[in-house]
Design brief:
Its main location: membrane. It is found in: Cell membrane. Belongs to the YfgM family. The chain is mostly helical. 77% of the residues lie in helices and 0% in strands.
């Protein structure tokens, strides 16, 4: 079909524009489409990782139920190596730590808890690991190390258990005035309906009750 004069002018203008900007447009499209493909691929990869991690975590839970401590540790180590970025890795390490602790393997328990503290991406899981690690250090009479683990910031919902654990360590060190302050803080941070309050109160009463308030 023959072009009329106006169409020929438009075609010439288009060809001129394409000669000047065509390569840029092509590269922009390549970048945009490549970015989309990468994003879609990453989403599929993440879903695949989560599925595989869930399956491995299920195997670990079965090993816990069967009290197969060797298999528990193998599954946890495998999870940490392959799926460290998932919540399953942190849950697996905590489960493996408890399994090791129940078997009096404190060294392995501490290693698993330290992994959560160092590698975990959830402040809540890290807090759980720190409180449990401090408990093991208390049993080992590593009091200063235990207090060091409990130093620093924690999520607000852990304020009571952290203070309670600090109180336990301070009592073991015979630092009763500081322990009373820690236990009182734990009580203040514990909901009135929480059954843990009774145990905290018993421990506080056993070392002389509420701390003496300083005069203003």
């Amino acid at each position: 079909m023959a072009y009329d004069h106006a169409e020929q002018e438009q075609l010439a203008t288009l060809k001129s524009w394409w000669n000047q900007y065509g390569n840029i447009v092509t590269w922009v499209l390549i970048i945009v489409l490549g970015a989309y493909a990468a994003w879609a691929g990453w989403g599929a990869y993440q879903r695949s990782q989560a599925t595989q991690a869930a399956q491995l975590y299920e195997e670990l839970q079965k090993a816990v139920a069967a009290q197969d401590k060797e298999k528990v540790q193998r599954a946890a180590t495998d999870m940490e190596a392959k799926f460290a970025g998932t919540a399953y890795a942190q849950m697996s390490a905590l489960a493996a730590a408890k399994s090791a602790f129940d078997s009096n393997d404190f060294k392995t328990a501490k290693t698993q808890l330290q992994w959560v503290i160092d590698k975990g991406n959830s402040d809540e899981y890290k807090a759980v690991a720190k409180v449990r690690l401090a408990g093991i250090l208390l049993d080992e009479k590593a009091y200063d190390e235990g207090l060091k683990v409990l130093a620093g910031e924690f999520p607000a919902q852990f304020a009571n258990v952290v203070s309670d654990r600090k109180g336990d360590i301070l009592v073991a060190q015979n630092k009763l005035d500081e322990a009373r302050v820690a236990y009182q803080t734990a009580l203040d941070k514990t909901d009135a309906k929480n059954p843990a309050r009774q145990l905290i109160q018993i421990k506080l009463d056993a070392i002389g009750g509420a701390p003496v308030k300083k005069a203003a």
